[in-house]
Each structure stands twice: as structure tokens, then as C-alpha cells.
Specification:
Elements: E1 2-7, H1 11-23, E2 29-33, H2 66-69, E3 74-76, H3 91-107, E4 114-115, H4 119-131, E5 135-137, E6 141-143, H5 146-160, E7 165-168, E8 172-178, E9 181-187, E10 192-200, H6 207-216, E11 221-223, E12 226-235, H7 236-246, E13 250-254, E14 261-268, E15 272-278, E16 281-287, E17 296-305, H8 314-329, E18 333-336, H9 337-342, H10 348-352, E19 364-365, H11 374-390, E20 400-407, E21 411-413, E22 427-429, H12 440-455
Parallel strand pairs: 1-2, 1-10, 2-7, 10-22, 18-19
Antiparallel strand pairs: 3-6, 4-6, 5-13, 8-9, 9-10, 11-21, 12-17, 12-20, 13-14, 14-17, 15-16, 18-20
Helix pairs in contact: 1-12, 3-12
């Protein structure tokens, strides 16, 4: 019998464990992770495979550290982006949790440098953005880089190894709920974990499982906005006037035609575009490193759509669009912006004649207009022309668009202010997979919050 069982060893689950160990060192805690220990995680594409083999458990998404371990490790130090924690507590409380979590990252080896703290520089960039009908969100960023992120997370893993039970390569199959109270978890190996409290932090990789498991147990869910879009890759000098000062710029644009919000997400100066595998569906993402530099910068452009009743499957919606791209291209599609505007597919020959060398070599030249719905595609095109006003060259005919990028945090659990599920006692749900957060620092902060709630009971 455990005091606390945690599903998922991403930032939310890890920070829950760290805080419980600190507050209740005598408690029995088990952390269940479907992937490998961090030192055993690998991506076959990075090890020389020409094409993603669609591993059963994607090494970029599963394992200690979650998807954040193999991202570029950006800690966005503001409540304004990266999650919805302000919906559950005061802004000052969220700021305190972010500050506390940030200090923990520093303790375990994060870099000291924070970008975007000079208010005069931000104000000038904000003015330029406003002239282009863009909103620039103030978001100081601590950048770890992929390799340093791995080191920080391994330090956390090593610290917890002899303090809690960590089960790797084991998947949570079913929750045990009796008399409206969680009693434990059944694992895919047949083992049953009994616990007084259960924390579900499965990340985006586990969002689909969470949705189905909660529906079975009649735990309330609401629809978040669905975020679908593309990853943009262009020469690094195009965005250097911004990235040199802010590292990552959070820009929001409202489409003139449809009024939809389009936002930049996960900007990677001198980074690389990568392929991920969500339950057999290939999607695109981006990474950057602390010490390895490419000649390109990449970022996502995501269009947010909020659907109403009777729509109930936001995750399935994103999966369908990504699956269509997979059907046409055998994986990720890439298209030059000029070819998209001219209404023709990109070809290997046209890519070779470009000034940009794609960093994702396995992407198939194709036509994204056959995949993305007209509404999202139109909004993305409008956003690229708006960005071109503050970063000339963004709307170049050579700019590369990869698809599909979709964020699987669209199902949001109905929770109390303590992040406990409504209707099932002692069951807490946190992180990106629950739709509570959508970034490393707020996911970490949500883990600290529920750990304190549990330890206070």
C-alpha cells in the first residue's frame, strides 16, 4: 500500500515526487512511467535511420522527463503563457509556484541566464509588433537546451531513485474507483497498485488514455481549444533581431477573415525540426541545443479553434488531420511557402533549388492545402504575412512549412481549485495531458501544488 501513486514521469509527475519527498520523507510513493529511464531513452532517427520507424513507444515522448526531456528545455517564467493555472488560484500564487519551480530547476543544474528581462527592449519590440497587428506577450525565458535539459532531469531522477519506487516500462491500464474514491491502479503487467492518493500526470502522450479512462469512470471533461498548425523553418538571420533579445517571442494574431487566434509556439533559434510519433501518428515538433547550432530557426504556428456541443473529441480531431498528412506523405509533409501560394506541391527538385536546407531530412515534399482545413490554412497564411512586417523574410517563397503540428492537450478535466477531480476523491490530475498546462514550468508548478495539497491532508 502506497501513500501516493503518480502516473507519468514528466515535469508534473517529477515535481510532485520531489515535493512529497521533501514534505513527507517517510511516505511510500510510487512513480509509474511507460518509457525508459532517461539514460536509456533514444530516437532511432537521431541514430542514423533514414525514416522514423514509428516505435511503439516514441523515445522523444516517453520516458523519464516526458516530452520535455528531448525538447529544448524552455522555462517560460510567467503565468500568462504555458497553461491555465490562474483559473484555479490567484495570479500571485501561480507566480510563487513558478518561482519555486524555477529555483528547483536551478538547484539541479539549469543555466542562470534568463532572456527577455529588459523591459525597454521588450517595449520597443512590442511597439513594432502592434504596428503589424500582432500582440507580443511578455514572457521571460530560461533556456536549458536539449543536452542540458537531459542533465537536469537525470539529476532529479538520481536524487529520487532511493527515496521512492520508480517503475519504468510499465503502463497504467485502469483506475480503481470505489464509492467515488480512487483506490489505486491496475498496470498492463497485471499488477495492482493500491494507494491512498493518485496523481495522474500522463502528458500529451497519455492524453488520449486519460480521456477514455475518465469517460469510463464518469469523471467530467470539457473541451479546450484545439490547436492545429504547422512548423515554420527559415534562415536564422530572419528572426535574429528578435531571438537575440528575447530568445523566444510569443506572438498572437487574430485572423482578419475568420477572427481565429494564431500564435507562435516553441521557437527554436538555430534549432532543428523533429518528427514525433503519437500512438502511430507522425507529428512535427522543434528542438534547439545549448551548444549545437544549425543555420535555421523554427517555430510552430498554431490555430486555436474552440468547438461547442455536440463536439466531444478534440484529440481525435487533431489525430485525423495529422493522419491525413501521414497518408499523403508517409509521415511528415514539407512545403515551400511560395509553392503553397502558387497552388502547387513542392517537389525534391524545388527544395534543392531553395536557399534553406531542411533539418528534418525524412519529410516528404507535398501539398499542405490537401491536408489542413481551409480555415486554419488561411489563418496561417495571414499570420505569416503579418510576421513578415516585423521579421522581413518570414513570408519568403523559400520558407518551409512542415505538417502537421498538433497539441494533444485539448481535453480538460473538471477539477477543483486543488486540482482534484470533481466526483472522485483523492484523485488529482495535472500537467499538459489534463489540459491544465501546456509548458514545462506550469506543468512543474502544478506538480508542486498538488503535492502540497496532499501532504496537508
Amino acid at each position: 500500500m502506497y501513500n501516493v501513486a503518480i502516473i507519468g514521469a514528466g515535469p508534473a509527475g517529477i515535481f510532485s515526487a520531489l515535493e512529497i519527498v521533501k514534505l513527507k520523507p517517510d511516505w511510500k510513493v510510487v512513480l509509474i512511467e511507460k518509457g525508459d529511464r532517461i539514460e536509456d531513452r533514444k530516437c532511432l532517427l537521431r541514430e542514423g535511420y533514414a525514416k522514423c520507424p514509428s516505435c511503439k513507444k516514441c523515445g522523444l515522448l516517453c520516458g523519464w522527463g516526458g516530452a520535455g526531456a528531448f525538447s529544448d528545455g524552455k522555462l517560460t517564467l510567467t503565468p500568462d503563457v504555458g497553461g491555465n493555472l490562474v483559473d484555479y488560484m490567484s495570479r500571485s500564487d501561480v507566480e510563487d509556484l513558478i518561482d519555486y519551480s524555477d529555483k528547483l530547476y536551478l538547484k539541479y543544474g539549469a543555466t542562470d541566464e534568463v532572456f527577455g528581462t529588459d523591459r525597454k527592449i521588450f517595449d520597443e519590440l512590442e511597439r513594432q509588433a502592434a504596428l503589424a497587428e500582432l500582440k507580443l506577450v511578455h514572457s521571460p525565458v530560461r533556456h536549458l537546451g536539449t543536452e542540458r535539459s537531459l542533465d537536469v532531469l537525470k539529476n532529479m531522477q538520481d536524487y529520487l531513485m532511493d527515496k521512492i519506487t520508480i517503475l519504468n516500462n510499465v503502463t497504467a491500464k485502469n483506475l480503481i474507483v470505489e464509492c467515488e474514491q480512487v483506490k489505486g491502479i491496475v498496470l498492463d503487467n497485471g499488477e495492482t497498485i493500491h494507494s491512498e492518493y493518485t496523481i495522474i500526470a500522463p502528458g500529451r502522450e497519455g492524453a488520449d488514455w486519460l480521456t477514455h479512462e475518465f469517460a469510463k469512470n464518469k469523471i467530467g471533461m470539457v473541451n479546450n481549444a484545439v490547436d492545429v498548425g504547422v512548423r515554420v523553418e527559415l534562415p536564422a538571420p530572419v528572426f535574429e533581431p528578435i531571438t537575440d533579445k528575447l530568445y523566444e517571442s510569443k506572438l498572437v494574431y487574430h485572423s482578419p477573415k475568420f477572427g481565429d487566434a494564431v500564435r507562435t509556439f516553441c521557437m527554436n533559434p538555430n534549432g532543428e525540426v523533429v518528427q514525433e510519433n503519437y500512438n502511430g501518428i507522425a507529428t512535427v515538433n522543434g528542438h534547439s541545443y545549448a551548444n549545437i547550432k544549425t543555420k535555421n530557426t523554427n517555430f510552430a504556428l498554431l490555430v486555436s479553434e474552440r468547438f461547442t456541443e455536440p463536439f466531444k473529441e478534440p484529440i481525435a480531431y487533431g489525430q485525423r488531420i495529422a493522419s491525413l498528412a501521414n497518408m499523403l506523405g508517409g509521415g511528415i509533409l514539407v512545403q515551400r511557402f511560395g509553392d503553397l501560394l502558387d497552388g502547387r506541391r513542392s517537389t525534391p527538385e524545388r527544395l534543392k533549388s531553395s536557399i534553406i536546407e531542411p533539418t528534418l531530412k525524412c519529410a516528404t515534399p507535398g501539398d499542405l492545402s490537401l491536408v489542413l482545413p481551409y480555415r486554419q490554412l488561411t489563418s496561417i497564411i495571414e499570420m505569416l504575412f503579418a510576421l513578415d512586417k516585423i521579421a522581413p523574410g518570414t513570408a519568403s517563397r523559400y520558407t518551409l512549412l512542415y505538417g502537421i503540428e498538433v497539441k494533444f492537450y485539448s481535453a480538460r478535466v473538471k477539477l477543483t481549485d486543488e486540482l482534484e477531480t470533481e466526483g472522485v476523491k483523492n484523485l488529482f490530475t495535472i500537467g499538459d495531458g489534463a489540459g491544465v498546462t501546456r509548458g514545462l514550468i506550469q506543468a512543474s508548478a502544478s506538480g508542486v501544488h498538488v503535492a502540497r495539497v496532499i501532504c496537508s491532508r
